[in-house]
Design brief:
alpha+beta, single chain, five-stranded mixed β-sheet, about 1050 residues, Isoleucyl-tRNA Synthetase, Domain 1, 34 helices, globular, Isoleucyl-tRNA Synthetase, domain 2
């Protein structure tokens, strides 16, 4: 009996009021499920502690164990655990309790139709509880916290990437029988969501958020959240995400909100959080500060403005200064030059006059100035430029703020007050020009800071904000990478991470928004003149009042009025708690926290390494004393086939749901999996999806072929007995079969070892590619084609058994990558071949293929097997050679040819090839196929040789396959020499034209000089390839001419 469980106490103390309600909902869901499946057991359920009569459609029995005090109650108040027992039952009833088996039967003789199967399969998985973690104390749990998608709309191809990669890891570890937990959730995304809700409000009601007020606006935002979350979770399910949906979370859930407050308070009490004035990136449209990481610098066309800074003591003498932002001249507090710049050395310490304002400011020296940029003199505006701010701090300069929060000019700008910053730029420059202060303007490419969210130009402004001191927090996060406690894949990102962490700046965590986590900060407003406005950090208003009373013991309570901070926290602050807050933190005694924390893996995009990963590591160590996860796997960005970023402007955006609807989820997943290498951008196109859709069709056809053929010949009991014998005694079975059977079994076991290692090493693309290659090439194109020739042999039951066995293992290996079609094919295989009598009920929880290492190293991978496999390689090379000759000389596909296979000094090889006589005939499409040992034929008759490794004698083409094998393929009577010569001549002329074009290009000095080195090299290789093809075609022409003259 296999036992799976789900802990109900995932978010709080097992006996907390909030947790009681969530546990009751979960229990009630299970209870309702029993009612739907088995209405007849209702009375039994009412009167007994356990409903033992009900078994669900999937063969699962739900057993609700709860407090003994509630034994006599119909509705237990607090189930302590919900245990799902999988019971081994003889599934002889209709379709084995798998609801979609009749649907497979209906679709079986039609092309694969994923749209008719995927939803039914997923609903069965989820309702059966297969996504819940097993309870196996002997194994280390495997845990992933899903990067929560923003509730800003539909998921994109980037989300499809992380769903695919994480689901591969989750399904693999579940099949390895680890307790496996994948927790889904969504993120409130403060800035982006508020911007979209404001836009919706303006569109639908023609109002601003200020007009409807904070309370009504937040109601709208929560409605938006409910709609978007429902849609996002539907999308995640459609992508095949095998998450534990009973643990689904939202970053503004009650429990997570409490975790955010607690984290803020603990960090504040330790001195890591402070409030102060600082130069921040200000978004005028959103009216909030934004993080440095949320600012993108875009190169745009602009101007460099040159003007005069006149000396106070000699207005005719000036320092030339260049700037890209003339409007900030009004806030200049110094002109700075490099201390070693001889042009301005005598001016250091003098005073200059600020244009229009007339303020006198000093000329200072600082090594931060680049003497080669512009004029080598830098105007210093600490209130509106980050570099200037740092220079201003070093030199004790004042801050003069020029702008209001909406980026209009303020009272410090004289007559320019009220103007937009760009209009101020124009008017101030005109004024300076009229007063003879302008030197020139010149076009210049400037780096413009733009908000990632709104796209507007971000303005550096001094603002009162809340910050986290990160230098100390970063120390354990740095050591974690250096000492290997956290592994980063690919490892090259470790250096990037360490460089950023070692130069980290304090983190501005406050945002002037309405949607988000309110800071747990309370301000004191009092009517008493003797007390200034102050604040405390507290978990509630009551706690805040208590702290204020301690702080001001003489203050009368009737004079106290509290006001909560209206700012909200940066979204990344709450996201930084995600791996442990999901599991119940700050209550570290919950079962989930103790069992599943730290997480095993954090899989995400490299573009949020600093936004999210670094902050999770810092906060994880500080708040839990542990790393939040052990491995960070970073995937790249999805790009189109040309390597371009997907964008609406370029028209190359692909909607994953639309693509899945057309091609099937499995095709999309496999296309992504085979393209995704750690840390590299992912080239993606519909051609790749189409190729994997074709592979899905191939799988469907393979399944149909195997089941139809084995069931025509054998009954279920016979197949089951033979299958069990193969599973239990592969050595005995292997000694009695042919080369092809030994080959495919060897390759299967080799594949299992390789794929297992590759997934464990996070090389999912390599693993997926190898499985596809094996199924398509080794299994379908070779073994199945050979198996077709074996049905009339007396040991054909061995062939049927091996087909089932290899197919079963192929489906298991493919399942993490293509879960839907593999589950459908596996269920039908087990149903039709009787295997369900001795095995598990679903592929999603079936065991990952295991092999007996002693058997593999002793027999399968031994020297004797190595020799036999070399014989099969020779067999395949012979077939390939014959097929190539047929194709090269235009033999009709169904035309059979006579063939002779000559072997030199290798009697065992001759014997092995003769054993595969029928297979050779079938696969090479030969009328007769003679295998003989003959050394003399290897002596080349130069008079009839083509000079290109081919030889024609007496109507046969002789081709050397290897040093000991030569194949003679009969052409006389099988081709029309005249037509074939015409075809080859056209082919030759086409190649000649390509050769001339490439030769002319490579002889052109301009091309060699101007073209990229790779393009030149590619052209050289292509020329060489065409030349070789031309020689081959000429050789074929010579042979066809000889054939025509006979």
């Amino acid at each position: 009996m296999t036992i799976s469980y789900v802990s109900c106490s995932t978010t709080a103390s097992p006996f907390s009021e909030s947790n009681l309600s969530s546990q009751w909902r979960l229990w009630r869901t299970c209870w309702k499920r029993t009612s739907r499946c088995c209405p007849g057991c209702d009375s039994n359920r009412r009167n007994n502690r356990h409903c033992r009569r009900w078994t669900g459609r999937c063969g699962l029995r739900i057993l609700c164990q709860y407090n003994n005090n509630n034994n006599n109650k119909r509705s237990p108040d607090l189930p302590s655990t919900l245990v799902i027992h999988q019971e081994k039952e003889t599934m002889e009833n209709n379709h084995r309790q798998v609801p979609f088996l009749p649907l497979i039967e209906e679709l079986w003789n039609q092309p694969y139709q994923p749209e008719k199967l995927e939803k039914a399969i997923y609903e069965w998985w989820e309702s059966s509880g297969f996504f819940l973690p097993r309870n196996d104390p002997s194994k280390t749990p495997f845990t992933i916290s899903m990067p929560p998608p923003n509730i800003t709309g539909a998921l994109h191809m980037g989300h499809a990437v992380f769903v695919t990669l994480q689901d591969i890891l989750v399904r693999y570890h579940r099949m390895q029988q680890f307790p496996t937990l994948w927790i889904p959730g969504t993120d409130h995304a403060s800035i982006a969501t508020q911007m979209l809700v404001e836009r919706m409000l303006q569109t639908e009601q023609g109002k601003t958020k200020e007009e409807i007020g904070r309370e009504k606006f937040l109601q709208l935002a929560w409605q938006w959240k409910e709609e978007k979350t429902k849609y996002i979770t539907q999308q995640l399910r459609a992508m095949g995400s095998s998450c534990d949906w009973s643990r689904e979370r939202f970053t503004m859930d009650e429990q997570l909100s409490k975790a955010v407050e607690e984290a803020f308070i603990r960090l504040y009490e330790k001195g890591y959080i402070y409030r102060g004035y600082y130069l921040v990136n200000w978004s005028p449209r959103l009216q909030t500060a934004v993080s440095d990481l949320e600012v993108e610098f875009v190169e745009e066309d602009g101007f460099l403005y040159y003007f005069k800074y006149c000396l106070v003591n000699n207005p005719n003498e000036y320092i030339p200064v260049a700037t890209t932002r003339p409007e900030t001249i009004l806030g200049d507090v110094a002109v700075c030059v490099h201390p070693q710049d001889i042009r301005y050395k005598n001016m250091i310490g003098q005073q200059v006059i600020v244009p229009y304002i007339g303020r006198h400011i000093p000329v200072i020296a600082d090594e931060a100035v680049d003497p080669n940029f512009g004029t080598g003199a830098l105007k210093i505006t600490p209130a509106h430029d980050h570099v200037d701010y740092e220079i201003g701090k070093r030199h004790g300069l004042s801050l003069i703020n020029l702008m209001n929060w909406d980026a209009t000019m303020n009272e410090n700008c004289g007559c320019f007050q009220g103007l937009d910053r760009m209009e101020c730029r124009r008017q101030l420059w005109n004024w300076m020009e009229s007063h003879g202060l302008v030197l020139k303007t010149e076009p210049y490419r400037i780096r413009v800071p733009r908000s990632q969210r709104s796209g507007e130009v971000v303005e550096p402004l001094v603002s009162l904000q809340w910050f986290v001191k990160t230098a100390t927090l970063a120390m354990p996060a740095i050591k974690a990478i250096q000492n290997g406690d956290i592994q980063m894949i690919p490892s090259r990102f470790e250096k990037i991470y360490l460089r950023w962490m070692e130069n980290i700046h304090d983190w501005c965590i406050s945002r002037q928004l309405w949607w988000g986590h309110a800071l747990p900060v309370w301000y004191l407003e009092t009517t008493a003149d003797s007390v200034d406005e102050s604040f405390v950090v507290a978990r509630s208003e009551e706690e805040a009042l208590y702290k204020f009373k301690l702080k001001y013991p003489n203050l009368e309570e009737e004079n106290i009025r509290l006001r909560r901070e209206t700012d909200v926290l940066d979204t990344w602050f709450s996201s930084g708690l995600w791996p442990f807050a999901l599991l119940g933190w700050p209550n570290t005694e919950t079962l989930d926290y103790r069992k599943f924390y730290p997480n095993s893996v954090m899989e995400t995009g490299y573009d949020i390494l600093f936004f999210w990963v670094a902050r999770m590591i810092m906060l994880g160590y500080e708040l839990t004393g542990k790393p939040p996860f052990h491995v960070v796997y970073l995937h790249g960005l999805v790009r189109d086939a040309k390597g371009q970023k997907m964008s609406k402007t370029l028209g190359n955006v692909l909607d994953p749901l639309q693509v899945m609807a057309e091609y099937g989820t499995d095709a999309v997943r496999l296309a992504l999996a085979t393209s995704c290498h750690a840390g590299q951008d992912i080239p993606f196109s519909l051609d790749k999806v189409m190729a994997q859709r074709n592979f899905a069709n191939k799988l469907w056809n393979i399944g149909r072929f195997i089941i139809q053929n084995v069931r025509q010949r054998y009954g279920k009991d016979e197949l089951l007995a033979a299958y069990q014998q193969l599973v239990q005694n592969p050595g005995d079975w292997l000694s009695s079969v042919g080369l092809a059977e030994k080959f495919v079994l060897y390759r299967l076991y080799e594949l299992i070892v390789q794929v297992t290692r590759q997934i464990q090493a996070f090389e999912m693309a390599t693993a997926a590619t190898q499985i596809v290659d094996f199924v398509w090439d080794d299994f379908a194109d070779w073994y199945i084609e050979i198996a077709k020739t074996r049905w009339q042999e007396k040991d054909s039951l061995q062939v049927a058994t091996l087909l089932i066995y290899v197919w079963d293992y192929c489906l298991r290996l493919l399942h993490p990558f293509m879960p839907f079609i593999t589950e459908a094919l596996w269920q039908w295989l087990y149903d039709q071949c009787g295997l369900h009598k001795s095995n598990t009920e679903a592929l999603v929880i079936a065991e990952w293929p295991q092999i007996d290492e002693s058997f593999c190293h002793g027999m399968l991978f031994g020297k004797e097997m190595e020799k036999e496999l070399s014989y099969f390689d020779s067999f395949r090379n012979i077939v390939r050679t014959i097929r190539k000759v047929r194709a090269d000389y235009g033999v009709a596909p169904m035309q059979k040819v006579n063939t002779v296979i000559y072997v030199k000094e290798a009697k065992e090889l001759v014997s092995a090839l003769k054993q595969e006589y029928q297979a050779l005939k079938a696969l090479a499409k030969t009328e007769d196929c003679v295998v003989e040992s003959n050394d003399s034929v290897f002596v080349t008759d130069n008079t009839s040789s083509s000079g290109n490794g081919l030889e024609y004698r007496d109507g046969f083409i002789y081709v050397l396959v290897s040093p000991v094998i030569m194949v003679a393929v009969g052409l006389r009577g099988n081709i029309d020499p005249k037509k074939e010569l015409e075809r080859l001549t056209k082919q030759h002329n086409k190649l000649q034209k390509e050769i001339e074009t490439l030769s002319s290009r490579l002889d052109n000095p301009k091309f060699l000089k101007n073209a990229p080195a790779k393009v030149v090299e590619d052209n050289k290789q292509l020329l060489q390839q065409y030349q070789q093809q031309r020689e081959t075609v000429l050789a074929q022409c010579n042979i066809v001419r000889i054939l025509a003259m006979e």
